[in-house]
Amino acid sequence: LMTTGGVNAQLYATDPGKILVVTHTMGLMAGVKKFVLAQPEVDYWEMDQKRQYPEGRTEAIDSDEKRNKRELELGWRKPSKDEQKKEKEKKKKDKKK
Question: What is the pTM of this model?
Protein backbone atom coordinates (compact mmCIF):
# COMPACT_ATOMS: atom_id res chain seq x y z
CA LEU A 1 0.00 0.00 0.00
CA MET A 2 2.79 2.43 0.74
CA THR A 3 4.38 1.81 -2.67
CA THR A 4 1.04 2.50 -4.32
CA GLY A 5 1.01 5.82 -2.45
CA GLY A 6 4.48 6.70 -3.75
CA VAL A 7 6.45 5.77 -0.62
CA ASN A 8 9.30 3.34 -1.27
CA ALA A 9 10.53 1.72 1.95
CA GLN A 10 11.96 -1.60 3.06
CA LEU A 11 10.25 -3.28 6.01
CA TYR A 12 11.91 -5.84 8.29
CA ALA A 13 10.24 -7.77 11.11
CA THR A 14 12.77 -7.42 13.94
CA ASP A 15 10.73 -8.89 16.80
CA PRO A 16 7.14 -10.07 17.11
CA GLY A 17 4.97 -6.99 16.83
CA LYS A 18 7.86 -4.73 15.75
CA ILE A 19 8.91 -3.59 12.30
CA LEU A 20 12.05 -1.73 11.23
CA VAL A 21 11.43 0.71 8.38
CA VAL A 22 14.29 1.77 6.09
CA THR A 23 14.04 4.49 3.45
CA HIS A 24 16.81 5.82 1.23
CA THR A 25 15.20 9.10 0.23
CA MET A 26 15.12 12.13 2.50
CA GLY A 27 11.69 13.17 3.65
CA LEU A 28 9.94 9.84 3.07
CA MET A 29 9.83 8.88 6.73
CA ALA A 30 7.07 11.42 7.39
CA GLY A 31 4.89 9.66 4.83
CA VAL A 32 5.68 6.26 6.33
CA LYS A 33 4.85 7.53 9.82
CA LYS A 34 1.55 8.99 8.64
CA PHE A 35 0.64 5.70 6.92
CA VAL A 36 1.62 3.55 9.92
CA LEU A 37 -0.25 5.67 12.47
CA ALA A 38 -3.38 5.53 10.29
CA GLN A 39 -3.53 1.72 10.64
CA PRO A 40 -6.10 0.64 13.27
CA GLU A 41 -3.91 -2.09 14.79
CA VAL A 42 -0.92 0.20 15.45
CA ASP A 43 -0.24 1.09 19.07
CA TYR A 44 2.54 3.62 18.52
CA TRP A 45 5.33 4.78 16.21
CA GLU A 46 8.85 5.03 17.65
CA MET A 47 11.71 6.91 16.05
CA ASP A 48 14.94 8.00 17.74
CA GLN A 49 13.59 6.56 21.01
CA LYS A 50 10.57 8.89 20.93
CA ARG A 51 7.06 7.49 20.72
CA GLN A 52 4.17 9.03 18.87
CA TYR A 53 0.61 7.77 19.01
CA PRO A 54 -2.35 7.67 16.65
CA GLU A 55 -4.60 10.71 16.65
CA GLY A 56 -6.63 11.02 19.83
CA ARG A 57 -4.18 9.09 22.04
CA THR A 58 -1.32 10.25 24.25
CA GLU A 59 0.00 6.90 25.47
CA ALA A 60 0.39 3.26 24.51
CA ILE A 61 -2.54 0.89 24.99
CA ASP A 62 -0.37 -1.46 27.06
CA SER A 63 2.52 -0.54 29.35
CA ASP A 64 5.98 -1.87 28.50
CA GLU A 65 5.73 -4.12 31.57
CA LYS A 66 2.44 -5.63 30.43
CA ARG A 67 3.76 -6.00 26.88
CA ASN A 68 6.92 -7.79 28.12
CA LYS A 69 4.87 -10.12 30.32
CA ARG A 70 2.64 -11.02 27.37
CA GLU A 71 5.65 -11.69 25.13
CA LEU A 72 6.94 -14.17 27.73
CA GLU A 73 3.52 -15.85 28.04
CA LEU A 74 3.33 -16.30 24.27
CA GLY A 75 6.90 -17.62 24.10
CA TRP A 76 8.01 -14.80 21.80
CA ARG A 77 11.13 -14.31 23.89
CA LYS A 78 12.95 -15.95 26.77
CA PRO A 79 13.09 -14.32 30.19
CA SER A 80 16.19 -12.31 31.07
CA LYS A 81 18.40 -13.46 33.95
CA ASP A 82 16.80 -10.82 36.20
CA GLU A 83 13.31 -12.05 35.29
CA GLN A 84 14.34 -15.66 35.96
CA LYS A 85 15.77 -14.68 39.34
CA LYS A 86 12.58 -12.80 40.31
CA GLU A 87 10.45 -15.80 39.28
CA LYS A 88 12.55 -18.17 41.42
CA GLU A 89 12.24 -15.84 44.42
CA LYS A 90 8.50 -15.61 43.93
CA LYS A 91 8.17 -19.40 43.82
CA LYS A 92 10.19 -19.70 47.04
CA LYS A 93 7.89 -17.21 48.79
CA ASP A 94 4.80 -19.04 47.53
CA LYS A 95 6.15 -22.37 48.88
CA LYS A 96 6.66 -20.87 52.35
CA LYS A 97 3.01 -19.78 52.53
Answer: 0.68
